Every structure is written in C-alpha cells, then in structure tokens.
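Margin note: ligand = magnesium ion.
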Amino acid sequence: MPKIKQLSPHEAQKIAAGQVVDRPVNAVKELIENALDAQATQINIFIEDGGKKLMRIVDNGCGMIPEDAQLCFAKHATSKIERIDELESITTFGFRGEALASIAAVSRVTLITKETHAEQGTKVTITEDTATEAVACTAGTDISVRDLFYNVPARAKFLKKRETEWRQIVQLVHAFCLDYTSIHFKLFSEGKQILNCPPVEQVIARFTQIFNHATSTSMLTIDASRDDKRVSIAGAISNHQTFGYNRSGLFFFVNKRWITNHSLQRALLKGYQNVIPQGRYPTACIAITIDPQFVDINIHPRKEEVKFAHPRVVEQLIEQTVREALENNLSAQIKQEVKIAPAHASTTHASFNPFDFAHSIQPTFYSGQGQNNRVQQNQRILNSPQTEKNNFRSRPVHGTESAVLFSEKNINNQQTLATQQEETSHTIIGQLNKTYILIEQEDGLFLVDQHAAQERILYELFSSRFEQVPTIKLMFPQQVTLAKEDVQLIEPHLNIFHKNGIMVEPFGSDQLIITSTPVHIKNISLEELIKQVLGWITEFQHLDEKDFFKTINEKLHAQMACKAAVKAGDVLTHEQMQQLLHDLHTTPNRFTCPHGRPTGWLLSTHDIEKKFKRKA
Ligand code: ADP
Ligand code: MG
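Resulting structure:
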C-alpha cells in the first residue's frame, strides 16, 4: 500500500511558486507591478541571460521599513489588503501577498530597500538561509533575483533559450511603457542599455521611443466610446504605410492591465483589411476602459486574459474605430497629394527598370565603377517611399477567374510548355498588359506570366546554388537601423544571410551594415528583407536548429526571388523576353512559380478556331 506523506512546507512552497512564476517574464512582471504599487516614478530593469541569471528591478518608490523588508517574503504577506472582502475593490495588481514569497522560494534574492525619510536602509539576502543587515542606500527598492529555479531542476528544464525568454521580457516592458506613460522606464540587457523611456504626455510619443519605425506622423490617435461610455477605447495605431512582420507591435489593455485576446486582435486586423498587405501587421496600443461588471478578469491565474460580457460590442468598437481612423487619414493624405502632385511627378515616374535579368547572369558586368553608382541610385529610388508605394499599388490582383482557367489547363500546359521550350524556334509576339509574354507557336498562342516565370527561375537559382550565387560589393554599404533588441535577436543568425551572399554585420548597437549582396537582389529593399527575417526568427524560434535554418533559408529564397523578379507592369525588351524564356527552359519545376501559380499556358489554335466558328 502506498503511504501518504505530507510535503514539508518548504517543498510545498516551491511547487506553489510555479503557479505565480513559471518563466522569468512572470517574475519581472510581479516586480514591476510592486514598484508601480509603491508609487515609483522611475523603474530600471536589468536582465542577464534572458532573466535566467539575473532579474533586477530598481525603483524610487516608497521603500520598506526593516520589519516589512523581512516580512514581505512570508506567504500571504501584503500591505494591500487585510480582509478577503476587500479583494473585489482593490485597484493594485496581482496575487495578494504571493509574489515575493514565490519568487524567493525558487531563486536567490537580494532586497535592498529604504523608506524616503529613513536614515538607513535594510538589506535582506535569501538563498538557502536568510540574512538581514542595515545598509546605507538611496530611497526606494532594489531587488535582485538570481538563478531562477536553481533548486527546482524539474522547472529549470522548461526554461527556453536566452532569446526566447528575453523577447518576452522586452514585450512586457514595452507594454508597461505604453500603459504607464508618466513613468521613466529603462531596460538593460547584460549591462547594455536597450531602452530609455522618459515620461511622455502621449502614447504616440512612447511608440517613437520604443519602435524605430513609429514616428509621430506614422501613428494615428484613436478615442471612441459606446453605451454611454460604459466601454471606451483610447490609444494609437499605425497608418496604412507602416507595418511590421509579426504581431509583436500589438498591445491591448483592459482597465490598465495588459492582456492577450485573440478576438480583439482579429477585430483590429479586420479594421486594416485591404489597407495593408496580407501577412503584415500594424503597430497598435489600445486601452479599453470598461465598467468592471462587464468584464471578468479572473479567468486566468495571472490575469493575462479577460472575458467580456458582451465581446461583440468591444470588437465592433475596435474594428470600426480603426477603419474610420485609417479612412480619415487616407482621405486627408489624398487631398494633400493631389495638391502637391505636379512637383512630385518627375520622381514618381523615375525611369527605373528593375529588369536587369539579361545581364544578371554575367556578374562581371557589374564590376565597373559607373555600374556601381547606378546600383546605388536604383537602390535609392527603390527605397524612396514614393516608388515603394507605386510599386505596391501597380501590382495586379490575380482574379479567381483566371486562376481557375490556369489550373484547368495546367496538366495539358505542362506538356505544351515542355515541347514548346524544347523547340527553340518560337516567335515572340510581344508583351500583353506589360505582364504576359505572348509567344506564337504552331499549336496556338502561348502566354507566359513574366513575374511568375522569373520568380521560379530565381528561386531555383537561390535554393540550389545559394552558396555560389554571384555577389556584388556595394560601393556605398547600406545601413539599416533597427531596435537594439532586434539587432541582438538577429545577430546569432547572420550566418543565414552570409550563406546567401548577403554580407551583413552589426554596426553599433542599433544598426546593421550591408557590404555586399547577390547581384540579382541588388535593387531590392534590404531593410525590408532584414525586417522580414526578424519576423521569421520570432515566428520559428521554437523549431530545432536544423528545421529553423531550413525554414528561414527557404523563406528567404522565396522572398528574394519574389522581390528581385521582374514585376507585372515592367516593360521588357525583346532580348529580355528571349533571355527569360531561355532561362525558364533550363529551370527545374518551371511550370509553376514558388507559390504554385502556373508560369504559362496555351490558348490552342483549336480553341481559337472554335471561337471564330471555323471549327465545331
Ligand atoms: P502583493 O504585491 O500582492 O502585496 P508581493 O509579494 O508582491 O504581494 O509583495 C508583498 C509586499 O511587499 C507588498 O504588499 C508591499 O508592501 C511590499 N513590497 C514589495 N515590493 C515592493 C517595492 N518595490 N516597494 C515597496 N514595497 C514593496
Ligand atoms: Mg505584488
């Protein structure tokens, strides 16, 4: 018969601690909340090894008297309530009197604290034993949590890679910065300052402190309410021209608590529908204020999720407010653009032809200095917002009707394309809609989608020979400015770029410098490519090393191919069309583009004759 044993209080506490703290980010959250509860106006956060080695939070709040400095680590020790019936009415954070006890049970803690007017401070050290001494220190509280789970190996095992834990902490600190604009936050990693956010008046100003891409002109303020203000939203969202590559710029707060809620995210993204490209994400901070009786904050042990009594009301409010803000901003911009159009006309229509394909297989062509200058020029033109916008708008939408036509004919066409390509005696008629190459052949009219075709050609080149693609040294190396934590995130993975002929290195703490690229992608926006890769690193970091590399490598090839390929709308010379068809002929998987669209199809003479009623 098994015999029941009662766990020692010490062991029981270690187990219970896991409810409050299961990753570094939870501990950081509790400690920042304590600092806020203590009325701090300045909070410095020091992290080492993603919090696994050290989490230190220093605040200038009210501090503690010596008795409290010891007592605060006891279970159920709190200055915030005395009786259970007060629980409902309190406005401060978190578990009541659980956080410090839990954290101290599973780590090595040093607390240094002093009340504002006290002569001396107190230092409490808790490891296997507890020690207390009087010390000289500044007012406020300085708490260091070291070696999380050093005494609970079963939990330590579940800690993730440094970057994963760090990323979560950064996200948390961003959220606090956006939620508490009057507090001065600083964040440090391995002693380096990553974030410095002095108090600001408006949440938009916070965005510009946190994210490089967010500027006061790229963010729009929102403010709206429903049901006689029983629910209202306020905050800021990015405009239609500013977007990121993952959801890490989306923040929701309910009654001053940072929460995650997929329905709210979906509502926000619906507001952006058809405004930003698919797979791109806005930056947004939406603070919801709602009558507490219409929201349940206790569905999650750490209160990170909430349940609304009437979710649709909140979702519709968000979707509608976002859509209206974007529409108003867009129509204001269109008016402005119409006014200034004449002055801009020449830049907008800059004669930039990204179709360098015919030359790109001869890398020596680019070694001349004049050519390099042109590369730079093109790069600039391509990167200018005017051109980017234009390119984006001029992309054709591929209707479903033609898609069906493509797939029905597909099997037939694969054969036809093969035969057609094998006989080199085709006649190129020309270009249709600056999008399709028309080829006359015995059995009919063959159409090739110039973008899809070159996308496949480049994709195969990049993926089969990526370690030997011809590269070009940029005469003026390109600098890309990123957030410091993004530089740290991407740094361990720069070999993915190097393997693909993109020579990129960190440059200072918030920049990367690119010194050479494959010739084929010399005209594409490298900044966008790097940001895209950052998004994938976040998205796929749960994979093991091999799959991680493989996935990102493949995505990079597809992206480089798509961006570098000639676009619909680009005029091609006869030689360029000839070259494209020649290269397509020697490319594997040439019948579809990497996204599965066909590269070409045949309108048979038979079908044409039927249309003209020459044949039954
Ligand atoms: P709770 O915050 O729910 O009261 P904690 O375990 O987080 O529980 O903290 C216990 C107590 O320690 C708090 O009630 C507060 O009195 C004190 N305390 C914790 N952190 C600080 C701080 N940074 N400044 C001042 N007092 C603090
Ligand atoms: Mg607390």
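The CA atoms of residues 310 and 488 lie 42 Å apart.
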